[in-house]
Structures are given as structure tokens and as C-alpha cells.
């Protein structure tokens, strides 16, 4: 972005070049302005749903896909991190967006709209997951630190709003959630348990299961006993008693990561810092 | 008071024309018998029956209203004196029987003409009741209610060529029903992802093949059509054929996916072709060729430069339908400003007509319309910016045998016929 108010000097040699680059920059910035306004429009459309009648799923999916497209392009451009910072720092519109997401999530049951909006949060999560996998398997991750910082924060921002939305949802519709929620959580746990032992094996070598209790779960629990195990407590998750945020599949991977990754990845979320982050976000929303 | 018409459908003979509206009402028109005396007059369509098909409901679990708007009507082939049709709102399909009563029995023994029971002691003779003519009464009665099978909004219903089964499709699933059985249906397509966060594509329309009762197609919001064979598996999640036109990279934009979303799919009467409608065009596909359509017709290409505004006002999500004529030689679809377009597949000629009261008197010829796309606007042309995007023709129908068309313009129904020479 070029600064405003820069006076162009009338000089022969440079003029044409600066003209072109100026025009080019203007075209580029007008494109990115248009793209930004399209993104804003799309987000507003997703938020402004009829509360009384179920909104059109096709329309919502198409808008969500458009938003994702724009996000992907902006990520490649490198302009996404600026948007993410805008989201995560104090500001009028980002917090409105977060609040509106909650409103959106609150009035729906599990199957409907909020999951679409969390498609966007899925993007943020995916980036976190990629980093987490790398840290599980590889040694140095220095280059990706900054990306992790920002990617982590994007995911969190979207996810936190969706999480609190889902919390309220679950309070309201505890019974209907139980059925499918149960399957989701069990699958997640199984997946996490079966995926990690291989990589853990690589890092730590073989280990014995001392207690002979069912599955690799107990072995994991032993290894990560310093981690707050209430998050792994199936009962907590199943009963929908949400003092802790709902754990998606990528959350568990993230929680496992810090135990054997380089300490420079401070900003990769882990269970205990989740609450701190949540407080931080709430502070921004509340505007204190 | 007329409500917004949401579906239009001729029956198999073309004698009846059904419309459904946003208020859940169905209005059926019947064609007058052609009078031999008045050679120049063709049968006109008059109201035959009106009934309330669906009522608004409230889903208490989700705290949401279920609209009574009729999304689709499909006629069953006529098998006796009565007529049957299926009408569907977002969640429930109903089978209606429309029957005529033009005689009534008189001379009952146990009750008198008012219907009051006669005093048995007063009955001294027996008589046989006689059928006497009466004013025609058309009765509509719900014969079956197919409910609770759709979590998402029903967008299509289609009667199978076996005349025993039909399919109903919502955003994520397609169910197969037997017309006699209401308490269960078979799920034949399910594209709901395990994690709803991964949802990127929905079902937009579905139709049974006109002759092969094991074949059906469904279209998606990503511009693809899948043809499925029910003999292959109980759950037809794997398609037999996959139709998709490769994207033109030069015209790619953020709106590409939205405008490629297919709003309607219709088999030709022959069963050899199918037609799809996306936002800007109509495409005819040969069922034997999956990689591209055989014909493409531009409906309103001048809107391509206005996509951003159309996205803003939500018009880009309008779902236009399309239809074939009886011989599959022509196709028709709607546009904005109460315009509708017809394409002749043989001559490649197309015409734009307008359905509006101001511009057409009864029995007057419709004047072809033209949209000016740029430069100087000629007389009688209309510029793109003057188009009224609130006047959209989403629903049209073509008589199965003759050149009679029905065009729904918001809350008005227009019926046009070929001029007789």
C-alpha cells in the first residue's frame, strides 16, 4: 500500500516508471478494496439470517464458499494477516463480527448454519494443525513461527466465537446434542489416540503399557499427566457441561504438541492457555 | 388475494394446469372443451379447483417456522376418472385426489332430500335411489401425507416411470417413496458430510428418467450433475455418470461458483437429453457425453458485468426453472423484467417475450423484446440498467403436446398460445 499524500515529482526518466507502478498499485489496491468489500458483504449476508424461518442452505453454502475463496486468495497475497490482526485487536467491526457470530450460532441447532460459518474457522484450524504435525515430526520450525503466531490467532478468534456460540447452543439443546455429539467426541478421541502413538514412538522410542488398561489412552494419559486431563474427560465432553471450550479434533492435536515440540512455539494454543486467550478475547469484545 | 406463484405444472394430457403459491394454496385450471362452432377459439383455461394444500407449521425443536409455500407440484398419470397430484412444501409431501361430482343420488329410503333421517315408521314403500345431475363440484382430498423424512428443505419431487414410486430431494438427501406407503421411505442419496463444517456442496434439483425407472439425476450447487442407477446399490452415493463442463479460466471470478450452481434439471421427453439451468445460461446435455453439454444457450449474458450488484441484492441466488416443449425441439426459461426466453434447438433462433398486463392485451400478439447491452439504445429496446429485478419469471411450463405455455410472473399467471392461422 502506498502512503497518501506523496507528491509525485515531474521528472522524465522516473515519471513513466512511477506512473505505471502508481497505476498498477492503484489497480491492485482497487482490486483489493473490491475484494475486501465483497468479503464484508458476504460476512454480513451470512450473519443476517432470518431468525424465524430457516435460511436457505444452498445460499449459505455458496456465500461461505465465496468467503473461503477470498480468504484463500488473501492468504496467498499475504494480505490476510492484516485482516486477522484487525480481527484480533480492539476495534469496532471485528468485535461486532464476533458477537454476530454468536448470535448466529445461538439460534440454531447443531446441524444448521453455525457449522457453515465455522467452515471459516476450519481454515484457521487447518493451519494450526499443519504446524502441529510438523512439530510432532520435525525438529526446526523457525521459519513458520510468525505464520504460526498469526494463523493461530486467526483460528482462535473465529473458533472462540464459534465455541461460545456452541456452548450456548448446547445449554439450550443438550439432549439433541448428546446423540451425535457423543459420536463426534469418541471418534475424535480415538483418532487422536491412534495417530499420536506412532509419532510419539518415533520420538520416545517404545514404551510399555504398565497398567494393562484398555487401549493406548491410558499410556497417553501417563505421558501427558501434567496436562489438565479434565479436557480429556469424556464425561465432561459428553454431558455438555461446558466449563471448558468444546474440543474439536485439531484442539487435541494442538494440546499434544507442546509436550514435545520446541519451546519457541509459544503461541500454539494449548489447553491451559486457552482460557487465558478466551479471557483476552472477551476483554476485547467487552471493550475494557 | 393472489399470492406469489411458486410452481406451475401441466398434467400429462395438458388438460389441467396446476399452480402452487406461497400461501400453500393450489389452484388448478382446466382447459375448456374446444367448441366446434367457434373455430378460431382455442380452449381457454379456467379455474377448476382451489384448495389449501399446506398450512404453516412450527418446528418446536428448532424453534423455526416451516413455510407453507408449495415448492413443487407433480401430476401422476391419470388412471381413472380422478386426478392425482403430489404437492410439496419444505418438509412434507401430500398426495391429493381431485375428483368431480356432477351427479347425486336422490330418493333415499332412510333420509329425505335435506339429509334428515326419516322416521322409520313413516316408510311404507321401498324405492331405488336415482342419480340426478347436479352442478359440477370438484373436490380435492388429501389421500396420503408423506412427512418427517426430510431434515432439510425439499427442492424437488419426481414421479417415476413405474408410476408406483417417486423421489423427493432436499439439500443433502434424496428419498425414494412408494405412493402407497407413507410411514417410510428409502434414502438413496446422502451427501451430508460427517462434519457439517466440511459442507461445500448441496443438491439443488433431482429428476427421474422418463422411461428408465432405475435411473435418476441430481444437480449440485457446484454446477455438476450426477446420474445414478438404482440397480447398482441401495445407496446411490456413487454416481454412474458425472456431468461437468470444464471451467473457462478466462471468465473466472469470485462469482464463478455461484453462477454455475444449477437451479433446475429436466430430462427431455425422449429421455436422451437433459437440460440444466444455471444463472446465466441453459445447457442441453447428451446423456452419453459427460464432459460437456451439446448445446449452450445464453439467457441474459448482459448480466455478467453486473454480478456484484446482483450478489448484493441477492438476485444471483434466484432459481430459474426451464422446460422442454412436447417434441423437445424448443426450450424455455425465465429472466428478469418479466421477460422469458425461448430457444429453438433446430433453427438456433431465440426470442425474448414479456409477460405483463400493460404490454399485452388478450388475443394480441406478443412483441419480441430486446435488451440493449451497450452503445446506443434503439427504440423499443430496454437498457440493462432499466431492468426491474423484482419482476422475475422463475416458473414456466409448456403444454406436453401443443404450443401452449404458462408463465408465472410473481402473483400473476399468463397463458399464451400459438396463433392460429
- Relative helix content of chain B: under 10%
Radius of gyration of chain B: 24 Å
Number of continuous helical runs of chain A: 11
* Shape type of chain B: globular
> How can the largest sheet of chain B be summarized?
4 strands, antiparallel
Radius of gyration of chain A: 22 Å
Average pLDDT across residues of chain A? 53
Q: What string gives the helices and strands of chain A in order?
A: HHHHHHHHHHH
Q: What's the quaternary structure here?
A: heterodimer
Please tally the β strands of chain B and state the result.
31
Unreliable segments of 5+ consecutive residues of chain B: none
Q: Choose one word for the global shape of chain A.
A: globular
- Largest interface, Cβ cutoff 8 Å: A-B, 34 and 32 residues
Measured as a percent range, the helix fraction of chain A is 55-70%
Give a quick set of tags describing it.
heterodimer; A: 288 residues; 69% helix; globular; B: 421 residues; 4-stranded antiparallel β-sheet; 2 helices
Amino acid at each position: 500500500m502506498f502512503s497518501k499524500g506523496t507528491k509525485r515529482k515531474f521528472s522524465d526518466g522516473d515519471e513513466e516508471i512511477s506512473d505505471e507502478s502508481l497505476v498498477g498499485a492503484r489497480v491492485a489496491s482497487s482490486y483489493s478494496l473490491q475484494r475486501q468489500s465483497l468479503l464484508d458483504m458476504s460476512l454480513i449476508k451470512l450473519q443476517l439470517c432470518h431468525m424465524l424461518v430457516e435460511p436457505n442452505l444452498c445460499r449459505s453454502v455458496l456465500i461461505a464458499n465465496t468467503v473461503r475463496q477470498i480468504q484463500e486468495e488473501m492468504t496467498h497475497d499475504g494480505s490476510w494477516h492484516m485482516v486477522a490482526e484487525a480481527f484480533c485487536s480492539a476495534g469496532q467491526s471485528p468485535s461486532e463480527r464476533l458477537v454476530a457470530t454468536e448470535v448466529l450460532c445461538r439460534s440454531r441447532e447443531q446441524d444448521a448454519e453455525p457449522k457453515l460459518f465455522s467452515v471459516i474457522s476450519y481454515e484457521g484450524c487447518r493451519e494450526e494443525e499443519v504446524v502441529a504435525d510438523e512439530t510432532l515430526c520435525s525438529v526446526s520450525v523457525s521459519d513458520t513461527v510468525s505464520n504460526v503466531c498469526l494463523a493461530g490467532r486467526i483460528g482462535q478468534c473465529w473458533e472462540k466465537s464459534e465455541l461460545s456460540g456452541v456452548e450456548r447452543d448446547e445449554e439450550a439443546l443438550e439432549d439433541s446434542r448428546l446423540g451425535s455429539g457423543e459420536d463426534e467426541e469418541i471418534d475424535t478421541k480415538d483418532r487422536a489416540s491412534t495417530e499420536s502413538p506412532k509419532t510419539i514412538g518415533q520420538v520416545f522410542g517404545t514404551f510399555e503399557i504398565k497398567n494393562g488398561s484398555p487401549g493406548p489412552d491410558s499410556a497417553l494419559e501417563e505421558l501427558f499427566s501434567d496436562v489438565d486431563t479434565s479436557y480429556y474427560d469424556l464425561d465432561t465432553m459428553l454431558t455438555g457441561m461446558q466449563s471448558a471450550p468444546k474440543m474439536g479434533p485439531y484442539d487435541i492435536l494442538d494440546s499434544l504438541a507442546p509436550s514435545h515440540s520446541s519451546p519457541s512455539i509459544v503461541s500454539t494454543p494449548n489447553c491451559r492457555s486457552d482460557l487465558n486467550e478466551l479471557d483476552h478475547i472477551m476483554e476485547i469484545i467487552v471493550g475494557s | 388475494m393472489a399470492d406469489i406463484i411458486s410452481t406451475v405444472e401441466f398434467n400429462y394430457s395438458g388438460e389441467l394446469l396446476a399452480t402452487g403459491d406461497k400461501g400453500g394454496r393450489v389452484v388448478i385450471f382446466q382447459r375448456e372443451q374446444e367448441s366446434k362452432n367457434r373455430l378460431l377459439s382455442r380452449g381457454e383455461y379456467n379455474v377448476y379447483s382451489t384448495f389449501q394444500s399446506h398450512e404453516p407449521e412450527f418446528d418446536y425443536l428448532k424453534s423455526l417456522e416451516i413455510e407453507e409455500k408449495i415448492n413443487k407440484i407433480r401430476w401422476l398419470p391419470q388412471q381413472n376418472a380422478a386426478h392425482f397430484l403430489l404437492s410439496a412444501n419444505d418438509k412434507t409431501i401430500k398426495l391429493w385426489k381431485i375428483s368431480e361430482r356432477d351427479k347425486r343420488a336422490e330418493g333415499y329410503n332412510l333420509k329425505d332430500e335435506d339429509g334428515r333421517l326419516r322416521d322409520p315408521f313413516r316408510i311404507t314403500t321401498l324405492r331405488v335411489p336415482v342419480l340426478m345431475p347436479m352442478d359440477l363440484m370438484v373436490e380435492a382430498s388429501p389421500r396420503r401425507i408423506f412427512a418427517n423424512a426430510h431434515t432439510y428443505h425439499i427442492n424437488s419431487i419426481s414421479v417415476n416411470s413405474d408410476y408406483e414410486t417417486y423421489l423427493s430431494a432436499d439439500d443433502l438427501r434424496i428419498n425414494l417413496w412408494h405412493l402407497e406407503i407413507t410411514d417410510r421411505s428409502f434414502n438413496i442419496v446422502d451427501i451430508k458430510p460427517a462434519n457439517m463444517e466440511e459442507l461445500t456442496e448441496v443438491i439443488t434439483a433431482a429428476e427421474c428418467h422418463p422411461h428408465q425407472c432405475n435411473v435418476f439425476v441430481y444437480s449440485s450447487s457446484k454446477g455438476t450433475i450426477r446420474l445414478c442407477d438404482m440397480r447398482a446399490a441401495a445407496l446411490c452415493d456413487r454416481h454412474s455418470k458425472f456431468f461437468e463442463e470444464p471451467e473457462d479460466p478466462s471468465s473466472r471470478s469470485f462469482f464463478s461458483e455461484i453462477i454455475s450452481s444449477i437451479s433446475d434439471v429436466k430430462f427431455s421427453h425422449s429421455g436422451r437429453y437433459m437440460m440444466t439451468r444455471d444463472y446465466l445460461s441453459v445447457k442441453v446435455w447428451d446423456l452419453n457425453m459427460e464432459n460437456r453439454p451439446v448445446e449452450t444457450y445464453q439467457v441474459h449474458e448482459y448480466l455478467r458485468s453486473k454480478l456484484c450488484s446482483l450478489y448484493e441484492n441477492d438476485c444471483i441466488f434466484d432459481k430459474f426453472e426451464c422446460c422442454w416443449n412436447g417434441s423437445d425441439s424448443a426450450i424455455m426459461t425465465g429472466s428478469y423484467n418479466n421477460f422469458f426466453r425461448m430457444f429453438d434447438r433446430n433453427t438456433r433462433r431465440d426470442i425474448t417475450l414479456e409477460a405483463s398486463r400493460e404490454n399485452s392485451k388478450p388475443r394480441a400478439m406478443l412483441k419480441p423484446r430486446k435488451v440493449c447491452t451497450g452503445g446506443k439504445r434503439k427504440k423499443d429496446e430496454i437498457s440493462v440498467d432499466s431492468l426491474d429485478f423484482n419482476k422475475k419469471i422463475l416458473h414456466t411450463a409448456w403444454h406436453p403436446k401443443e404450443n401452449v405455455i404458462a408463465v408465472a410472473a410473481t402473483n400473476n399467471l399468463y397463458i399464451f398460445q400459438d396463433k392460429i392461422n
